[in-house]
Amino acid sequence: MSDKNLVLASDGTSLKRSLARSLKRQKIRALLLIAPLLLFVLLTFIAPIADMLFRSVENSIVADTLPQTVKELASWDSDSGQLPSEAVYAALARDLKIAVKAKNHTKLGSRLNYQKTGTSSLFRQTGRKIKKLDFENTPSFKDAFEKMNKKWSDPAVWQTIQQFSNKYTDGYFLAAADLTRTSSGIEEVPEDQRIYYTLLLRTLSMSVTITFMCILLGYPVAFLLATLPLRSSNVLMILVLLPFWTSLLVRTSAWKVLLQNQGVINDFLVWIGIVADGNRLELINNVTGTVIAMTHILLPFMILPLFSVMKTIPPTYMRAAKSMGANDFTAFRRVYFPQSIPGIGAGSILVFILSIGYYITPEIVGGTKGVFISNRIAYHISSSLNWGLGAALGAILLVVVLALYWLYDKFVGIDNVKLG
């Protein structure tokens, strides 16, 4: 295009270039406006998840605490059944002397104790005695370690050190799947120690049950709220929202009082003669108590999306269906219900995801039979301090939720989910 046909802006520059510069400034301004939100999401959501995923495979404590021992153990044949060479024992003595000064030997023992019970006390005892060891006048470090603790003559201890000497490990994920790595390969743990697979299946099945119960109870309530006059529906909506104004701990504790053997529900059933006094229902410390309490707690999260969608359905549709000869049930089934399905989808996703990660309510009313896998994650994070296993369980739970979300999107379509 010639200069004569070039369209100029008011400042004499090319109009096209001026518009491009203006659009660029608008994009930068928009990015600066959302930058605080992006930073907040990065710090409070993305970073913790990334840290959790890293902790589930990170295993640098062995290599960092015993670098010389790990190097010497690399050439040891763990399947031979023989103990390592004298050079390995000498390297361990040097490494432990440094680790004791830095007070890292107890952390190392705690890490290896997850794999082999008794390793923690072994490193603590050896750490106290290694200070007295005369490195210059010790003829045999192997004999010296065996005098400190007879467990150093057990090849299984050395196999554990060698097995977890890499900086990254799949041991946490194997433990989360009730598996373990031995010298002969990956094997299942003893049957009486297999808990995580059962917990995961229980978590999924109970979450589905709770979601179904919330649909069953929440749909009629939402339908009533959407069809009643505004004044009446506002009063009922306050009752629906009332649990949000009460502490979760208080609500859960109230269910513990209601559901126990000598609680209000059992007393009422005995009083009206449905249940004999010696045959009171077991409603607490089991799956039943967890489902009842969590259904009550999560019910508003199902009612609100359903109500918001039902409010958008014009009542004239039902009247039109009836005017064409449909009865109440047919008009509801063929006209009203299909339009409310997006609300069911939104409420189901919300309730399911919330329930699968709940741990306070199952901890209080679930006992040993009604707890979720999230309770075990909380235990490893706060009590046993086995953060790697807790992170692996959390990562597995995250993958399961994402897989279920993908299946829902594939067969139902996330675009069909609406909040109003």
Structural class: mainly alpha
Mean pLDDT: 87
- Beta-strand portion reads under 5%
In DSSP terms (H or I, runs of 4 or more residues), the helix count works out at 19
Task: Report the CATH topology name of the largest domain.
Answer: MetI-like fold
Q: Biggest β-sheet, characterized?
A: 2 strands, antiparallel
Order of helices and strands: HHHHHHHHHEEHHHHHHHHHH
Termini, distance in Å? 52 Å
Strand order of the largest sheet: 1-2
Instruction: Please report the total strand number as a whole number.
Output: 2
Which CATH architecture of the largest domain? Orthogonal Bundle
- How many distinct folded domains? 3
- Low-confidence segments, given as residue ranges, are none
| CATH H level, superfamily name of the largest domain | MetI-like
**CATH domain class of the largest domain:** Mainly Alpha
Q: In percent, how helical is the residue content?
A: 55-70%
* Spatial extent as radius of gyration: 32 Å
